[in-house]
Amino acid sequence: MDQHESDIVQEPEKRSYEWRAFFFIAVFLFPILSVMLIGGYGFVIWMSQVFFFGPPGHG
């Protein structure tokens, strides 16, 4: 395959992209996903108590 000069990413530029991707994942993506996951789990538990099981400790 023939690579053009413009397609080759220089090493310092590549490292910059890698650091930007790391900070995006570490600072934004993982915290947002973890809040969504834990919130969704809490919502499922709450709805199961409302419709099926009742409040905990009353049985």
Describe this structure in words.
73% of the residues lie in helices and 0% in strands. The longest helix is centred in the middle third of the chain and has 43 residues, at 11-53. It is built from 1 helix and no strands. The model has no long low-confidence stretch (mean pLDDT 87). The chain has 59 residues and is an all-alpha fold.
What's the SSE pattern? Answer: H
User: How many β strands by DSSP?
Assistant: 0
- What structural class do helix, strand and pairing data support? mainly alpha
Instruction: Catalogue the unreliable spans.
Output: none
Largest sheet: none
Distance between the termini: 70 Å
Could you tell me the mean pLDDT?
A: 87
Helix percent reads over 70%
Rg, Cα atoms, Å: 23 Å
Residues in β-strands, percent: under 5%
Q: Helix count?
A: 1
Approximate shape: rod-shaped
